[in-house]
Design brief:
The complex is a heterodimer of chains A (379) and B (375). With 379 residues, chain A is α/β, with parallel strands linked by helices. Helix content of chain A is 36%, strand content 14%. Chain A has 13 helices and 15 strands. Chain B has helices at 2-13, 30-37, 45-49, 64-76, 85-91, 113-122, 138-147, 160-170, 185-194, 236-248, 274-285, 298-307, 321-331, 345-349, 366-374; strands at 94-97, 104-105, 108-109, 126-131, 157-159, 178-182, 197-200, 223-228, 253-256, 262-263, 271-272, 290-291, 314-318, 334-338, 359-361. In chain B, α10 crosses α11. The longest helix of chain B has 13 residues, at 64-76. Chain B is elongated and about 70 Å long. The chains are: A alpha/beta (379), B alpha/beta (375). The interface between A and B is large, with 59 and 59 residues. Chain B: GO terms for molecular function: phosphoglycolate phosphatase activity.
Amino acid sequence: MYLVSWFLQRELHFSPKSVCYKDEGTAPCKRNGGKKNQPTFCGGTRQVKQPPTVKHIPFSNQTALIYFKKKLINILPKSKNGNQPEKDSDAAQSLFVGGKMSAPAATQLLDLHSARALVDSVEAFLFDCDGVIWKGDKLIDGVPETLDLLRSKGKKLVFVTNNSTKSRRQYAAKFHSLGISVSEVYVIGMEGIVKELEQAGFTAIGGPEDAEKRAEWKSNTLFEHDKSVGAVVVGLDPYVNYHKLQYATLCVRENPGCLFIATNQDAVGHMTDLQEWPGAGCMVAALRGSTEREPIVVGKPSTFMMDFLLQKFNISTSKMCMVGDRLDTDILFGQSSGCKTLLVLSGVTTETLLHSPSNQIKPDYYTTQVSDFIGFLGS
Amino acid sequence: MLSSRTVVAVASSSSFLPLSHPAAASTSSSASAAAASYPFLNRRLAFSQCHTNRDRSIIPKPQRSRVMEGFKTRAAAAAPQLEDADALIDSVETFIFDCDGVIWKGDKLIDGVPETLDMLRSRGKRLVFVTNNSTKSRKQYGKKFETLGLNVNEEEIFASSFAAAAYLKSIDFPKDKKVYVIGEEGILKELDIAGIQYLGGPEDGDKKIELKPGYFLEHDKDVGAVVVGFDRYFNYYKVQYGTLCIRENPGCLFIATNRDAVTHLTDAQEWAGGGSMVGAVLGSTKQEPLVVGKPSTFMMDYLAKEFGITKSQICMVGDRLDTDILFGQNGGCKTLLVLSGVTSLSTLQSPTNSIQPDFYTNKLSDFLSLKAAAV
């Protein structure tokens, strides 16, 4: 393979026209200025999903095959319709490799052309909040202007968050359909969950009022729990303690048919702007450890919340774009529902993590922060 | 092609950790990956023997074939009731007893236990007591045995608190590193005896968090291991401290004394156990712990080495299928389930149960009554 790759490098370096599918009338492509160890690679704009991130893959036999495939595309006759490279590449593949080479779908860095295409193709934008709109309690730069810009283009904006410490109506209404006979709910969480449940007509016990309770045990004393609790809801709780864990454990294990519901399973989050703190995933995993049961998760990446959004807005999910900072909740949520996905690097995910070989979740696009839209759409 | 397959294998176990993190390797060998990358860890037999409660398919390598054979035959046949106690007693040299549910229940001794233990000792059997409860140290357990009128030596007791300290000693945990403890006094006392510095424990139970802008929790960069066990003073501060140490201190170990879902703190009911606290730290770090208590065979290997016993000459007596009996099976010893604890006959014989001990009996003192019947 070494000879082939050496050959390819030379060929591609000296080829008169590099492999470039630039569209007529857009900005000229910037060629990679003839660096020896890289193919002449079009840094310009493309419509097609050729892997522009091929330069991120360490040079290997697989890379050599991709370069060879590109070379064959140059040789093969181009069809009238210039936008057919995908088909040609398939032909090249079957010619050369004898089968489909499945590379993971690549993530595109958002740029001028793709941002405009994205905004034109979707009708609604779903934004995660922590790490996209704000960080802890500080607003991220440029966000208000970006949201105004998107609104002025007639896009619907929705804010979808896993944070259950503030009120969210959707959880409450859905609990009804989950457990019709549930009337009492034990909560490990903050006021948000308690308020929502009460608004929906449930009796919520636990929550912040159990923060100061201490569990004591002596022989012949019993830890009492309410036998009519029909569900335990677990969310982020900075005042979690053994009393709450024990109460919830007894409810789930001993009350027949008791539901175990988790608002979300985020491992960590930016509860303050300076560092990450354990998220609801911590409390949920604690209860999973003592009950040995898996929870029903209502937050991202479960597509639970999507049902509401579909009903409310009556837009198909392919015309929605999910904007988030977490791969395993926001982006997975978007992908599972069939939306387009945009990752912003202003939150917990770094570019290294996104491109790391152990990461299997590839958003459609990624960019530094939400206000980049101003730059792309502004003029 | 090879590269893509390898990538998939790594991703399935820990998708969201940077590859440079020691735990980013596959879960079963996270321990050995850490050992390879960091100078103060070395690969000892005990190291590779640790496995988690959940991942029961990971059998310790040296005993894999023997235990797998055991699993095949045992899984097929339902456990018979013990009839010939003498035959069992004669076939082994050592008895390992679980404590809660076998010897005592809460603070009450189970009937007939002192006489049974005396009988076994008179027949020259070695007795060892292994418990997953990390709230007391060996010495404190010795006192509990004494209070209940049992004649037991401190050296015969192995609590998971002791196991955590013994494990750290066995990997030559550096003197300049500290341990952060999410647990109770027992762990602290054992670390003291082993000469290991520690932070945390019950006193952190009063510390409060205020999630407001500008608030920053500092953590000691010298913490080289976080030990998590049952903790009645569990709170958010401890989870955050432990999480910061594990995520940010390079090579920091995450050790769990045990992962029992529930435990009998009182004889009247079950209480959320160590599995809860360990679950919390696992939920926020997304890292699997090294478990030193049952069903990991660390304690069995330790005492086999300490006393020079062959594992096939041991009989494990316990009341829990997923810790005691699995512990015995993983170690390659005979297993006897007693129904005086948390497991009932219906649980044992339920079609969803896949763990079958060699024998079962109602309680420990059956050794005396069955023996008498045989005569």
